[in-house]
Amino acid sequence: MSAAAISSGLFEAARLGDPQAIASLLETAQPDIRRYARATCRSSADAEDATQEAMWILFRHVGTIRSLVAFSAWLFSVVRRECLRLARKAGLVPSIDDGEVDAQLLSRSEADLRLDVAAAFEALPAHYRDVALMRDVKEMTIDEIAAALGASRQTVKARLHRARALMREYLTR
């Protein structure tokens, strides 16, 4: 998606929760989302499902996107993950077990692995990244994270689980 097609004013208004700006952002982004989904997903039905899911995720999480520059990459990673999820659900892409993940990760050099892990953290949506960094880097407890974020233990645990799953997916592609 071309960030030039979306003005910074529109993006900021949508990020801050303006309903009209969000609707305009969704309308502007939809053709590019659909085009990317058609190029990435294995079938036209999956592409339509991925487009709808990406639009829904954008609607729910537009406030978490840090900048207009990061918007396109974030949105396309959402579409790519949806296409992969739909392919796995259909049995077209095998799920990777933990032993295979370990073998893939151990085959990389330490420097490459550090860069890959940093990129995986960066690719996470902000609300997942914050929880994962607090738990896995700062080694905070679930209760400490919940208190820091003003969230429930269950929310923190769910976000941590999802963050780790997304990072695992990122590292195994």
Automatic annotation (TrEMBL):
Question: What are the protein's UniProt keywords?
Answer: Sigma factor, Transcription, Transcription regulation
- The coiled-coil segments of this chain are none
Q: Supply the Pfam families for this chain.
A: Sigma70_r2 (PF04542), Sigma70_r4_2 (PF08281)
Transcription regulation listed as a keyword: yes
All copies of domain RNA polymerase sigma factor 70 region 4 type, residue ranges:
116-166
Top-level division of the source organism's lineage: Bacteria
Q: Which residues form the RNA polymerase sigma-70 region domain?
A: 26-90
Q: Does the keyword Ribosomal protein apply?
A: no
Give the InterPro entries listed for this entry: RNA_pol_sigma-70-like, RNA_pol_sigma-70_dom, RNA_pol_sigma70_r2, RNA_pol_sigma70_r4_t2, RNA_pol_sigma_r2, RNA_pol_sigma_r3/r4-like, WH-like_DNA-bd_sf
Entry's Gene3D superfamilies? Answer: 1.10.1740.10, Winged helix-like DNA-binding domain superfamily/Winged helix DNA-binding domain
NCBIfam families referenced in this protein's UniProt entry, alphabetically: sigma70-ECF
Similarity remark: Belongs to the sigma-70 factor family. ECF subfamily.
**The name this protein goes by in its record:** RNA polymerase sigma factor (Sigma-70 family)
